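quick one before i forget lol
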Amino acid sequence: MGMNDTPSGERVHIGFFGRRNVGKSSLVNRVTGQELSVVSEVRGTTTDPVYKAMELLPMGPVVIIDTPGFDDEGSLGELRVQKTRQILHKTDVAVLVVDAPEGICPCDRQLLELFRKKGIPYLIAVNKSDLMGEADGRIEPPDESFQTGWDPVYVSAAQGDKIYELKERIAALSAAEDKSRRLAADLIQPLDMIVLVVPIDSAAPKGRLILPQQQTIRDILEAGASSLVVRESELADVLQKLGRNPDMVITDSQVFEEVVGVVPLDVPLTSFSILMARYKGLLETAVQGVTAIDRLQDGDKILIAEGCTHHRQCDDIGTVKIPRFLKGYTGKELVIETASGMSFPEDLSSYALVIHCGGCMLNEREVHWRIHCAGEEGVPITNYGIAIAHMKGILRRSIGIFPDLQKLLKEGK
């Protein structure tokens, strides 16, 4: 990903839903202006969700998702329907595509109920409207509970009718971006000097910085401050050469222990992972959940979850380092399971704790859904940076820049 590209987690996710053969893929191709999805007269041509990150005027950067038919049949069909349900966890705006000649069917109603249950803004695109005769009238809601705000847009993917209006309606539904949500800019002042500690080890991506590091640098620049990026091995020498203390140090969680021994106590210190957890709405829950580490017993099962999929390196943080930290800290024989990307389980009841990554590749809606899954089962959930800081004994210092969080920590933990 280039430095100027908008990350997937920062884009509005627009999902197109409906039963098979209503023209979802044709409509997606019209909306995007690209042959994004395969189109065929055969029912069920779309067998897996299709994602496309793009600029969609007048909204800006979005992710368009074309989903399999929600009425798919058989064992494979059920798997496809399940994938479609998973898409709902990350959908910011839903478009229900309805067949104009056939009208609302039970499958459509089921989707509408899911949209409402999950609080997803939605609109109805009645496709194949060119096949409706004047006597056909308009598509009516399935019952009076859907009457309020019922205002479908009548389109034709085949003819290209009302596609612009559909895009305008989608844009109107998208939630306004919360300009107050910042990674670090609200914590610093113009002309501040921020030192970023970035380890370059066997698990680091070749030739680039990871996404939270890129985003933090950009946020610091937008605040009118400056950033100085160093490895942990040069940190002490760099601080000495600065001639004054930096205004803040932000470190990769993996080198917390080394960094805390170098940075003066009066210098605010935190991590990229902690900042990302705050940005995604996970931080308070993560602080509340982290003390569960102290209560782990032999045989307890831990889920270590990541929002993205990547090639595992020999010293990977999720599969190697955090399990090693857990074993060393607790002295217990724990059962470690991992999940990445879309494989996050909905049933967490068998786990004693979930430790999640910062969520930089997930949009806020999906992060909140994962928190909800844990909360429903009463399973504590924390994140990489909070867990590591806790196990290294520096959690209080690493969240010291957030005074409201201090009271969430029990004394002596």
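fyi Residues 42-46 have pLDDT under 50 and may be disordered.
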